[in-house]
Design brief:
Two copies of one chain form a homodimer. By secondary structure, the first copy, chain A, is mainly alpha-helical. Chain A folds into two domains: 5-94, no CATH class; 134-200 and 270-501, Neurolysin, domain 3, CATH 1.10.1370. Chain A is built from 20 helices and three strands. In chain A, a hairpin with a 2-residue loop joins strand 2 and strand 3 (243-248). At the A-B interface, helix 1 and helix 2 of A face helix 1 and helix 2 of B.
Chain lengths: 501, 501
């Protein structure tokens, strides 16, 4: 008997349930797992991951994919979209010899532990042999993954941002480097450095958490469909659209980190809470790419959370929530302090203006590595050289340099550009929204509902039914264009730095 | 090829991992699940339960059971113990026709919802038809389950307390009824009613939680192997011995409930944290019965938490933790108030002296139902009559009467006696321990470690490797004997009520 769409979607639902299960296991591991439960948790996690991978790459799935690829007329529109995604996933995971894939998994598991040790020792050379093995495995796997991409690195980019290429990214990176240089030069030569002393005033963690809770609720995050917990690193995990959880951390002397971190995660959560229910239990109930996912968290964090109009409305609430702590600071002074920009060695501590330069460094190193222009051994020197060139600072050791991110040790090569793409997508969405809504007035008045509704209907509702390229074009009328990001940053920072002609 | 113990235990480990998974899902459902996640959670829970049941009752398990039953020499001691438990579970779940079992599952799912409605309406007649169906299903299933038990109700008792029978319980219940009547008569005629007004003083919930956390830590609950969360009803869930979580609830005007509730759950947690690691990933990593599990929570709650010596040591800490709230109450006055006994309509609100009478009522009704002496329709009248006879009070409506517990609607018939057995086991353990350790001195001095260590080595470490009957005999030198419970209650309450000759 011929396979039916109904049976195909039943298998897809099982995979989705196992994904939900893994999301819960992962969330709990970061929020509630007691120390001595770790080894048991590893067994559980491995067992459920194994079940999930077996279904995603097994013979039953292969039968469905082969049949529906040959008989596309047997699927309706939703089935067709699901097929596109599961087929891509199948191809990614299926062709590689199982023994090689297992060996690779072992290397990234070891590498992440060695990464911790290397950080303590401040010594990249400890990690180097592991990273060399990871790169060698990736180079071995790329031919299995390649589907006509122009370069090997394009293959890796495509795994996190489908359709993204070096050909698109190279000019974008060049434009950003020049544009950011220009803005920073303007601020340094014609701007007024904001007062920032009050930014480290002690705000109790419970107060910070309550501010985050209130703010993200007003920004549309629905606590009937999620919750807010504490973890070492903030993250969002979507079990399903009725349970899109966020976590946050609080630093008593760093309310800005906590506040923007919470608003950021709530952007991810908002996305997942508002996907079309038709897509439940399929891979369509997700963002179409990592970059697009980040576009919604960064829209929250930067284009709302660092928007002058937003703080005009919010600052009174913030003052009230923090008692008498900020009564001596008026709103313009507060906002300018909030927007101070300064190059940092650590990517995750960067302000939005300098952040892209951290990504440029990583992008250029990854690209050189996979397109044969450098070796793992040469990376630390290149890292230092590029940080000096682009940001004007040099790490004193590997821990605050090339060892700062776990991504490479975890095998996530080609991932970093999605953080930057998220910013660019967000800026372009913000521009398009501004053509249809009085965004500044809405932000200043605290009436965020029309903004949330716009994002929901134009972006969130669609889930992963469109590719990122199709989505950005459909929503904004043009392909990805870094100009909107540069324009917003120029205007915003020049205003915060009181740049005059 | 003949099945090997290694492969058998690998299957058992898979079942154990799925059980761990279900425990996590259940814990999270009661602590962190947002409202709109409920329907998705139901699907996940059903899927994982289905996987687990399939392994527990599938053909692979049958092959192992058949082979090792015929070739017991092929298993070592641990394998033999595991076989005993999985075979019992297999027999319980396998023989019943699948369609009947599914219909039964549907009835108990419906019945639990109807139970909620019936409670709101204060009307047992709404639940009656569902309970009749549940009883009919049980009567239909009992022949499949029966393994030589003397009465049908014995079959149900055995499912929660292996080996327990009406023949053992009838004289125990009679002894307890008479003994409790005697103690209550003594207190009423020759005792002094304690002052209790201070028992409802407002203690902030966070303070209560901190007191619970400190107290259970001193009583040996290990937060490296568990955690404490809030939920509507307190419970313990053991994912594994490295992750035995407890929850608690807090009532600002009922610190006693919160404190004893937390200590109770920590007793369950303590048990599970201290089972022999050899039993990991097998059903041996659990208590041998529900009653034995309760023996350890009730040991904590009653024989420590209501022990005069314990409060001699703890009251100063309690006073300090609650600020100036109890400075006017001295320790003897506090302890006497803590021990006030009064019949209640609600089982879960009962003090330990009257608690067994609640179980006697339920035991007598269940026994009559299954041994053909009454019908579901007659239960409410019998309930009222027995409450009046044993406790001297009559519920004004079904909600504070026969509808107070969800157990019957959930198909848990034969379960209630385990709560009472837990008390009796605990008293007998306490007596045995007192022969070997200066228990009162240790409690008064706050040096709880020897008590914890005794429980660990005599009871917890053994997991489910012995039957409850073997365990109680091995630890105390004799079979279950309600005399120890009656002796302790007599002495303790007469002292608290200042009974003189």
């Amino acid at each position: 008997m011929a396979p039916t769409e109904h049976d195909f979607l039943a298998l897809v639902k099982q995979i989705s349930l196992l994904g939900m299960n893994l999301a819960l296991i992962d969330w709990d591991s970061h929020t509630n797992l007691p120390q001595d439960g770790a080894s048991f948790r590893g067994e559980l996690s491995g067992y459920v991951s194994g079940q999930e991978l077996a279904l995603r790459t097994g013979s039953e799935m292969k039968t469905f994919i082969d049949y529906f690829t040959a008989h596309p007329e047997a699927l309706d529109e939703k089935g067709t979209q699901v097929l596109r995604l599961v087929k891509k996933d199948f191809d990614l995971n299926h062709d590689i010899p199982a023994a090689d894939y297992a060996a690779y998994q072992q290397v990234i598991s070891d590498a992440q532990q060695v990464w911790e040790q290397a950080r303590v020792a401040q010594d990249f050379s400890l990690l180097q042999p592991y990273l060399e093995k990871i790169v060698a495995f990736k180079k071995q796997f790329i031919p299995y993954w390649k589907r006509g991409q122009a370069t090997d690195y394009d293959v890796l980019l495509d795994q996190f941002e489908p359709g993204m290429t070096v050909a698109q990214l190279d000019p974008i990176m060049a434009t950003l480097k020049a544009g950011i240089h220009q803005i920073r030069h303007t601020l340094a030569t014609r701007g007024t450095q904001p007062r920032t002393d009050f930014m480290s005033r002690a705000v109790p963690e419970d107060v910070q958490e309550q501010v985050v809770r209130d703010t993200v609720t007003r920004l549309g995050y629905d606590f009937k469909k999620g919750n807010l917990s504490r973890s070492t690193h903030p993250f969002t995990v979507a079990l399903d659209r009725g349970d899109a959880r966020i976590t946050n951390r609080y630093g008593i002397h760093d309310f800005q980190m906590s506040l923007l971190g919470g608003i950021h995660e709530a952007g991810h959560g908002l996305y997942l809470q508002n996907i079309n229910p038709t897509y439940d239990y399929t891979p369509l109930a997700d963002a179409p790419s990592m970059g697009m996912h980040e576009s919604q968290s960064l829209f929250n964090e930067i284009f709302i959370g660092r928007n002058a109009a937003f703080w005009q409305g919010e600052y009174g609430r913030f003052q009230a929530a923090t008692g008498r702590l900020f009564t001596d600071i008026d709103e313009p002074t507060f906002y300018r302090g909030f927007m101070a920009t300064k190059p940092t060695l650590i990517r995750t501590e960067a302000d939005p203006l300098t952040y892209p330069l951290h990504i440029v460094v990583r992008y250029e190193l990854e690209k050189a590595l996979f397109n044969g222009e450098t070796t793992v051994a040469e990376l630390p020197a290149l890292w230092r050289q590029k940080y000096q060139e682009y940001l004007g600072i040099t790490p004193a050791n590997d821990t605050e340099g090339i060892l700062q991110d776990i991504h490479w040790a975890g095998g996530d090569l080609g991932y970093f550009p999605t953080y930057l793409l998220g910013q660019l997508y967000a800026a372009q969405f913000y521009h398009a929204m501004s053509q249809e809504l009085p965004v500044t007035d809405l932000l200043a008045s605290g009436d965020y509902a029309p903004i949330t509704q716009w994002r929901r209907s134009h972006i969130h509702w669609l889930g992963a039914s469109l590719t990122p390229q199709t989505l950005i074009k459909q929503v904004t009328g043009e392909p990805l264009n870094p100009r909107y990001w540069l324009d917003w940053m120029t205007t915003t920072f020049e205003k915060a730095y009181q740049v005059t002609e």
